[in-house]
Specification:
Elements: H1 10-13, E1 20-23, E2 26-29, H2 30-54, H3 59-73, H4 85-94, E3 100-102, E4 105-107, E5 112-116, H5 150-153, E6 155-159
Antiparallel strand pairs: 1-2, 3-4, 5-6
Helix pairs in contact: 2-3
């Protein structure tokens, strides 16, 4: 007769995230233990340098680095989707909120010149010696004057 079969159900029940580790009587989440150990890596670089400069006060840097590390990796944002803090910081830095996007490119409307839009799908190439055709309309002081001029009303901001 065959012995009883034992299955490892931890990966199937998703309880790996909730797994606890006991170290010297301290019950610690496995995730928090991994974050703590990876947070020691930057401490191994920073603390010896600071120890040579300021002595035993460098241990405060160890506590500070670990605290910031836990806040970035384990902490969650208080608003919105409650995502991890480091991901929220990256998303805010790469977001296009408050930026003007035209044709997939970010355009700064404050740094540009006035120009006239020409309905065409093919660029117009002129001979370099030909007389330039006035296509740029500049409003007084570089701003739209709000007047009734058709040329100014047809003008559009073109990236510099």
């Amino acid at each position: 007769m065959a012995g009883a079969q034992v299955y490892d159900l931890t990966p199937l029940t998703r309880s790996f995230k909730e797994r606890r580790v006991v170290i010297n009587g301290f019950d610690v989440s496995l995730r928090h233990l991994v974050v703590f150990v990876t947070g020691l890596l930057p401490c191994l670089v920073v603390v010896p340098i600071l120890w040579a400069i300021i002595g035993e006060f460098a241990l405060f840097a160890l506590v500070l680095i670990e605290g910031v590390w836990f806040w970035l990796i384990v902490g969650r944002s208080a608003t919105g989707t409650h995502e991890v803090n480091w991901r929220a910081i990256v998303r805010k830095r790469t977001s296009l909120n408050g930026k003007f996007v035209c044709c997939g490119k970010v355009v700064d409307p404050l740094h540009g010149t006035w120009g006239r839009l020409v309905p065409s799908s093919v660029p117009v190439h002129r001979h370099p010696l030909a007389q330039p055709v006035p296509e740029v309309v500049v409003a007084p002081q570089g701003r739209h004057s709000g007047g009734g001029s058709a040329e100014v009303d047809a003008a559009w901001m073109v990236g510099a």
